[in-house]
Structure prediction request, 256 residues.
Amino acid sequence: MAERFGFGVVLARLLAHRELSAQELADRAGLPADEVRAVIAGAAPGEGLLRQVAPAVGFEAVDLLVLAGFAVPDEMAPLDGVAGLRAPYIVMDAVRLPVAERSELLGLIRSLPQEPRPSIFTAKQLASHTGPGGWIIRMLQYRNLDWMGMARLLAVVTPTCLSASTYGVIGGGRKELTPRLVTDFAALLGVDARELAALTSVHLAEEPPPPAPEAVDAAALLWEVRRLSEAQARHVSELARSMRGPSPPPMADTSA
Prediction:
């Protein structure tokens, strides 16, 4: 029998993992309990409900929209797709800095003024598959990473080292998620690995260790960098590179 992955099923799994009732979630989100129960039972959620539920469960609203199969509104998408070409390099340079300097760089990024959106952000289209692999790759796309960016960044901040094209295969549902992949994706997304495993129905045989401080900071930096324009991203990239010092040899693109 095929695995069910409707949003109500996913939300029920998250609540079960947290030992949280529909009533408790409704209270936290400021929603009628009957509305939450209806979604768990299979009713389609509205965008407003997803936006209210997100902070109540500690997820980004973008991620819940992706899980529910919604189009992400322009105002919630990365500001500048061109800036995404610099995003992995900014984070890779930043995680090689001492903790205090990483924090300083993150503070600088957050302090930069919000610039006008230069164009509509369009995530690369995946196959019609909307299962767990597609969710995760789309969440990373909305952190302004293309497949090559995913390959480069995950190879630096986690043990996962795959070719860029493999991320397209995962997104299209043609490569199964493994416990290792789920754990490493969770680190870069800034979510709990046990919860991502519960949402994607991947069994973790062992309790995953907490993500390394570098991975935690990488997730925070990646989320903040998505609000930068290309010019701002270029400035931050040059600064991060100068703070880090001489560059290491280029990373090889290793096949899965």
User: Anything to note?
Assistant: The CA atoms of residues 160 and 180 lie 8 Å apart. Residues 248-256 have pLDDT under 50 and may be disordered. DSSP finds 14 helices and no strands in the chain.
